[in-house]
């Protein structure tokens, strides 16, 4: 009977591809319960309808994706399978009451299954609706949060525009206080950027837009912005290319950086004052201290005067170095570092740098030397700036190396470049500090080194300005090597 029902159930689309154990499911148990319900009156027992099994079967069918019509169809097939099997075996229940009891048992199973199926389905739909409502509520919260974030960013206008026409489809509310124009006014001006950006900078901005569209890159530019009230702002415009419904779009931000530019200009003015108005008096002080130290009376009478003059002279020279470092750092940051490049002999540069630090190395008991590996073609560089770089690296190497150690300046040609390196046998640098070494003012162990922490940042800028690059390799307890490359002269 189970096999006959299985063959019939395979004709239902929902049961066609179901594995046999899932298709048969609770049917054998249900058949036994239906038979028991028919036999119960003759045995003097109270019949127990197959309701629980039918309910469990309905739960399984709901999980397997059967619709209600398929569940009812299964029970119709079950009814016909039972009656056909009994008819073929000439084993129909005796008398009308037994035959009626058989159909009542099947009807009870159908009712129980339908009730359980619909109740479970509606409960699931309710849960789905509740989950959907929860998700929609969360979406609304996130939408409001995003709107508040975008519209309350100080000094920032967030916008979206068509990448071809540059017409805006969205402009945040901060456009009004930042630019003096409402979002609607931004969106209504046909040639917005041409109206509010000076011509020379407009060309660069339009090139930026085209590059962002064609190369699918993120681009940014600092430029002026002309407000309707006549004020001129400095803004930073950043653009990201994307698509919306197959059409290219720009998502951008325009940030008011006027105050930042003014603060940078003020800093540069201060540095100019430091450079010119402090350097000259400091040079006079240094020159007179040197003269005073030389002309101090001999013997004990002038010893104290000479000592005080030399101490003050060291501090004056340190001040001069700090002023020079600050001016150089400002030039590096503004990318206005001046270098005068010409062909130079790298061997002589290394020897000159070593010679200037021999006295300091001897005082500390260090071996200091230079060496050249192979041929040394001329390099295209600024002689004084390379001496400055090597001086920064040598000063650090000597400070980091204990007495009895060594410092080596090495020169080696590699293809179209020459590598300068300063290697020491000092304490080494922890690996976690290496990424920060070229940051201005950063010092991993302030107690171990004196100075402002500007030397490596300036050195990096000086190397880059001459077309090279600088890097570091270090191992704790085994020393450190700073290396930089400069291009070979091909003239």
UniProtKB/TrEMBL annotation:
Among its keywords, does the record have Transferase?
A: yes
Catalysed reaction, written as an equation = ATP + protein L-histidine = ADP + protein N-phospho-L-histidine
Q: Which InterPro entries match?
A: HATPase_C_sf, HATPase_dom, His_kinase_dom, HisK_dim/P_dom, HisK_dim/P_sf, PAS, PAS-assoc_C, PAS-like_dom_sf
Domain named Histidine kinase: residues: 273-490
Q: What Pfam families does its record include?
A: HATPase_c, HisKA, PAS_3, RsbRD_N
**Gene3D superfamilies for this protein:** 1.10.287.130, Histidine kinase-like ATPase, C-terminal domain, PAS domain
Task: Spell out the CDD domains in the cross-references.
Answer: HATPase_EvgS-ArcB-TorS-like, HisKA, PAS
Q: Tell me which EC number(s) this protein carries.
A: 2.7.13.3
Keywords, ordered alphabetically: Kinase, Phosphoprotein, Transferase
Transmembrane parts of this sequence: none
Does this UniProt record's set of keywords contain Transit peptide? Answer: no
Residues in PAC domain copies: 219-269
What NCBIfam families does this protein map onto? sensory_box (TIGR00229)
Q: Any idea what this protein is called? A: histidine kinase
């Amino acid at each position: 009977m189970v096999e006959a029902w299985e063959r019939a159930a395979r004709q239902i689309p929902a049961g066609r591809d179901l594995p046999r154990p899932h298709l048969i499911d609770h049917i054998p148990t249900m058949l036994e319960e239906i038979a028991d319900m028919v036999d119960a009156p003759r045995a003097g027992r109270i019949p127990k309808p197959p309701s629980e099994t039918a309910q469990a079967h309905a739960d399984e069918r709901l999980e397997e994706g059967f619709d209600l019509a398929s569940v009812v169809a299964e029970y119709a097939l079950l009814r016909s399978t039972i009656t056909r099997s009994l008819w073929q075996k000439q084993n129909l229940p005796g008398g009308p009451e037994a035959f009626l009891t058989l159909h009542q048992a099947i009807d009870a199973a159908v009712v129980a299954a339908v009730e359980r199926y619909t109740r479970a389905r509606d409960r699931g739909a309710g849960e789905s609706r509740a989950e959907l409502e929860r998700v929609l509520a969360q979406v609304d919260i996130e939408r409001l949060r995003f709107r508040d974030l975008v519209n309350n960013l100080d000094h920032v206008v967030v916008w979206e525009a068509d990448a071809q026409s540059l017409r805006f489809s969205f402009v945040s509310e901060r456009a009004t206080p930042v630019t003096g124009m409402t979002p609607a006014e931004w969106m209504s001006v046909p040639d917005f950027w041409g109206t509010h950006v000076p011509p020379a900078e407009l060309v660069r901005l339009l090139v930026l837009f085209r590059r962002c569209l064609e190369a699918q890159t993120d681009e940014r530019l600092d430029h002026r912005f002309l407000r309707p009230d006549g004020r001129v702002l400095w803004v930073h415009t950043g653009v990201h290319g994307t698509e919306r419904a197959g059409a290219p779009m720009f998502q951008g931000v325009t940030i008011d950086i006027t105050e930042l530019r003014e603060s940078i200009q003020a800093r540069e003015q201060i540095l100019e004052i430091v450079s010119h108005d402090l350097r000259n008096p400091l040079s006079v002080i240094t020159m007179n201290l040197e003269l005073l130290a030389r002309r101090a009376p001999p013997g004990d009478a002038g010893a104290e005067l000479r000592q005080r003059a030399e101490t003050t002279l060291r501090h004056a020279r340190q001040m001069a170095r700090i002023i020079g470092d600050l001016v150089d750092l400002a030039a590096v940051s503004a990318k206005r570092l001046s270098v005068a490049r010409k062909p130079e002999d790298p061997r002589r540069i290394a020897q000159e740098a070593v010679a200037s630090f021999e006295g300091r190395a001897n005082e500390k008991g260090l071996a200091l030397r230079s060496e050249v590996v192979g041929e040394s073609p001329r390099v295209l560089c600024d002689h004084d700036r390379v001496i400055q770089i090597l001086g920064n690296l040598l000063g650090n190497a000597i400070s980091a190396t204990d007495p009895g150690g060594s410092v080596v300046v090495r020169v080696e040609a590699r293809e179209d470049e020459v590598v300068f390196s300063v290697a020491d046998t000092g304490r080494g640098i922890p690996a976690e500090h290496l990424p920060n070494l070229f940051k201005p003012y950063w010092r991993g162990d302030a107690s171990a080194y004196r100075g402002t922490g500007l030397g490596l940042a300036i050195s990096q800028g000086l190397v880059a300005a001459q077309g090279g690059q600088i890097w570091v390799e270090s191992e704790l307890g085994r020393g450190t090597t700073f290396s930089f490359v400069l291009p070979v002269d091909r003239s």
